[in-house]
Design a protein that fits this description.
homodimer, mainly alpha, Arc Repressor Mutant, subunit A, 2 domains, elongated
């Protein structure tokens, strides 16, 4: 890394730390690029140059903390794709649970961002990953052969983001939102899974079954 | 109606008309209580007194246009409850479709409101209506007897609002969001419907089936 790149990296880290501090102590409403530059001791242009927008700073906060649904959704060969899909939900739940108030503010901030491009990019990214997983599931005979994997992947991705949006907007707890996603995923997957994956999908569904009053 | 009440009603109507005009011509970002009072030719206190908050004005816009999910969800005896449930989705889709851009701004404005109470009230109202419908469905033997109707109703209501939220935030078209809700509803209802309602739920599901690539 050149000296210049190193300085950039340090500034990025400093700005991320400032963002976290501002959100924790003053609340996300107080987070502006100006306040951020001030707190990090850099010029007002620096956060724009290094991140682009406040929304990008928030995304960097999640990624810096190790949250990467892309990684969680990336295909691992040793498992059923369906098992991996549901393990991703566990991963997301545990991550947000580790500091729910903070991550909820960050996530809510991203999803209600005034930069629709940034949000859309994230939505399309999650949808594309779910579609890829379903393509793999089909290749591994985990889906009935007439399944439209593209539409199914889109359904799964939209579902995840729609319900996490309710969490970000403080309508649901993290636990309830993940339970809701699991139910909505299972309901449709039970219609489309093959014999090879039925046991895994059914197990996921039984864990959130709506029985017993 | 007393003269005083009549004057109030007129002011409410004037303010609703102003809100609609401002949203249509200037965009919802320009809608403030001050701008509203100015456009309607009333004092700044009047919109607060008559509505409470900007969010309440937006809700009044939807209701004034005849949008009432409560009415759509209110039990009608002549149908299967499950048929009525899915008819509600048609109703919502047709209503928003009639003027999608406008209603999307209004709905998005309500759901991203800075008044969490108002939003929560709406969420709880929709959830309660879905729960009531499921109680009726159980009473009419449309659900398997071990179904937790309270949890099921909550699932259905949260699902509707989560996905409509994605529409309000411009991630999905109205049509796609209703299709998504129908899928998520059917997936779970297929697990819980009885023989009496299976045909209705299956028909709803077949209309949005994820088959054929």
């Amino acid at each position: 890394m050149s000296r210049r790149e190193q300085a950039k990296e340090e500034n990025r880290a400093r700005i991320r730390a400032s963002a976290e501090r501002i959100i924790r102590t003053e609340g996300i409403d107080k987070l502006t690029m100006r306040r951020l530059a001030e707190d990090a001791g850099v010029s007002l242009r620096t956060p724009y140059n290094l991140f682009g927008s406040k929304t990008d700073v928030l995304i960097a906060l999640l990624e810096g903390a190790g949250f990467d649904p892309g990684d969680a959704l990336a295909l691992r060969d040793e498992q059923l794709v369906m098992e991996q899909l549901f393990a991703t939900l566990d991963h997301i739940e545990a991550f947000f649970d580790s500091d729910e108030k903070f991550y909820r503010e960050v996530y809510g901030g991203i999803m209600s961002s005034a930069h629709p491009d940034v949000r859309s990019t994230n939505v399309e990214r999650v949808v594309a990953m779910c579609q890829e997983l379903m393509t793999h599931a089909a290749a591994k005979n985990e889906l009935q052969i007439d399944t439209n994997t593209r539409e199914l992947g889109r359904y799964l991705g939209v579902q995840l983001l729609a319900v996490l949006g309710m969490w970000g907007a403080e309508f649901l707890s993290n636990q309830e939102s993940i339970r809701q996603v699991r139910r909505a995923w299972c309901g449709i997957l039970l219609q489309h899974c093959s014999n090879a994956s039925h046991r895994a999908v059914d197990a996921a569904y039984q864990s959130v079954a709506l029985t017993g009053s």
